[in-house]
Amino acid sequence: EIDKLCLGGYCSRNCKSSYKFGRKVAKMLRDVRALKGDGVFEEVAAPAPESISVADERPTEPTVVGLQSQLEQVWRCLVQEPAAGIIGLYGMGGVGKTTLLTQINNKFVDNPTDFDYVIWVVVSKDLQLEKIQETIGKKIGLYTDSWKSKSLEEKAQDIFKTLSKKKFALLLDDLWERVDLKKIGVPLPKNSAVVFTTRFVDVCGGMEARRKFKVACLSDEDAWELFREKVGEETIESHHSIPQLAQTVAKECGGLPLALIIIGRAMAYKKTPEEWRYAIEVLRRSASEFAGLGKEVYSLLKFSYDCLPNDAIRSCFLYCCLYPEDYSIDKRDLIDCWMCEGFLEEDKFGTQNRGSHIVTTLVRACLLEEVEDDQVKMHDVVRDMALWITCEIEKEKEGFLVYAGSGLTEAPADVRGWEMGRRLSLMKNSIGNLPTVPTCPHLLTLFLNDNPLRTITGGFFQSMPCLTVLKMSDNIMLRQLPTGISKLVSLQLLDISYTSVTGLPEGLKALVNLKCLNLDWADELVEVPQQLLSNFSRLRVLRMFATGVGSYGRFSSRYVNVAEELLGLKYLEVLEITFRSFEAYQTFLSSQKLRSCTQALFLHEFCREESIGVADLADLEQLNTLYFRSCDWIKGLKIDYKDMVQKSRQPCVFRSLEEVTVDNCGNLKHLTFLVFAPNLKSISVRDCDDMEEIISAGEFDDIPEMTGIISSPFAKLQHLQLGGLGRLKSIYWKPLPLPRLKELTVVDCDSLEKLPLDSNSANGRRILIRGDEDWWRRLQWEDEATQNAFRLCFQSLDEL
């Protein structure tokens, strides 16, 4: 390059060549400076990137009352079980699910484990997979500007690659529906875990949770501890009356932590008894007026209501607030009401099945609680929320007037309320008479049940043209229906069960729209007008279980042929019926339609010397309850055991039978047919003079096919009551597992010296055995281990 220069090497002969060379030199100089810089080794390594903590601590209450036991249970699943898998925490809104999940998260901070990542994600109602991926990406170090621009599928691949090599716990808070973990990129956990919270137990199924834990409301003791903590000791101790008043306020919260916290904080500076008494009054009269409840508690709970699938199910839910606080609601009564209110679509599966599905939906949404198999209950705060919706949010639409359980001695005098209301509940009060004639042009629903009603003025119902549902059950003092009831031409449900009404007026024939008639345990009812039942051509539900059984022979001859009147009811879906003659029973058996819809059967005072064919009963596919009373002339229960063995292999034989009662049937010697009923929950046998065995071993001597059937009967039996059986020597000839037995009562059965129990019976659970002290002392046991196992289970009837 020097040779190309002129003027002593200072100028180029070719300007273009010189320019190129200059640029080349400049670049080389920059490279030299860079290399010199790299040669300075003041730092021998780059600083390490900031480490990522396994879990990020989240804010929570300093003390958490009532959750410690469940926290330990879930923690053991996570750190001690080899494959925790997917775990669901479910429960109603405000019960503490997020608090529990937060405690789990923070336990990872305080306790070293072999988990590499603990990832907290808030999901909520508006499910967005991209946001879940974003939160996970930030935690595991994937989140960059370039990563943000990737597609959902590409991000899922990156997350999957990272988490597949690590042990992680993914904590998902507030799921309202199934989250597809594969779409997010979360590998199905083997050694890892996914823990989520939800209000809906169905979500646990959708997420394929290996374990699920119900987060329940607090016990009275824990609720008081939490409430006292929020109010503060200074306020609690400020007046000698306040501790007791404060406990009353705490109980109004029904153990719901969110309500306890909100109300506790609101009462923190209320230091006079008057303020506390006023708070109790407000909570009982109109809880939504209490500071913070509507905004902070009811609004939160309302999300579950809003999330219900459709308006019909929402209406079914709101309907439950017509019942009193802390009231056990019979599922079948509830479904009857829903059907007649028009909430249930009529389809090929029947309204009863549709109603059962809705009950299950509400239970799984934690808006109702199951009390027993046949009852549900509304949590007090959930009920208050429902009343808040009906009386404030949707006041004009719903028109609810609820005075249930208010201690009223007479109907409210709010004339405008009667005129504008659509649903009125006066149930469970102390109302003895209804002397006035109200004007109720819009009233659809009237609950008068569970009162000491004696008289209802004749014109009481004359201004209720739209009334659809009328419940007057559990008025045990009520002996006569008012003549004006015939004016209720729109009525679809009439319930006078558990009353002392002696006869139905002829005017009831005007109620041609009736779909449900409930006369269960109206045991004084003896007068039923001829052709009355057949006149209800739209009837879907007829309940006449134990109707007239208290009349002791005083019975209208027209009622004897009741079965003939039922034959024309083509829409009938549910039948509960009482027969007092063998002829009526035979007519009933001849109808496949009646047999197919019978759920409860009461046979009372049969006066002919006949035998009842068990095979006829076994074919009643829906039969749930069977009752024999005062059938002294029944020779016995006729059984062809070989035929029954064949029938028992079919899925319909006694499959629905859960409750059997036999009362005052002197000629019966045993009830061996019960071994063919695999789902029995309750057996009651009383005052049967000739009864020697409940199940007779001798009946099977010549039938080897019976071996498999009788090997372990009563697998679902919960209650067994035996009374006044002087000749009874045996319940069963050998010990039984009885895995679900809860209670066994034996009274005046002096010949019964041994129970069918051994040390393994009842799964080692503590059951209750009631009886006389003398009988208990004489009892013989299988062995000493059996006696020791049940020694503490006895309760003397002498003490009751």
UniProtKB/TrEMBL annotation:
InterPro entries: Apaf_helical (IPR042197), LRR_dom_sf (IPR032675), LRR_R13L4/SHOC2-like (IPR055414), NB-ARC (IPR002182), P-loop_NTPase (IPR027417), Plant_NBS-LRR (IPR050905), WH-like_DNA-bd_sf (IPR036388), WHD_DRP (IPR058922). The keyword Nucleotide-binding applies. Keywords: ATP-binding, Leucine-rich repeat, Nucleotide-binding, Plant defense, Repeat. One of its GO terms (molecular function) is ADP binding. Residues 322-386 form the Disease resistance protein winged helix domain. Residues 422-684 form the Disease resistance R13L4/SHOC-2-like LRR domain. Residues 68-235 form the NB-ARC domain. One of its GO terms (biological process) is defense response. PANTHER family: NB-ARC DOMAIN-CONTAINING PROTEIN, NB-ARC DOMAIN-CONTAINING PROTEIN-RELATED. Belongs to the disease resistance NB-LRR family. This is Uncharacterized protein. It comes from Citrus sinensis (Sweet orange).
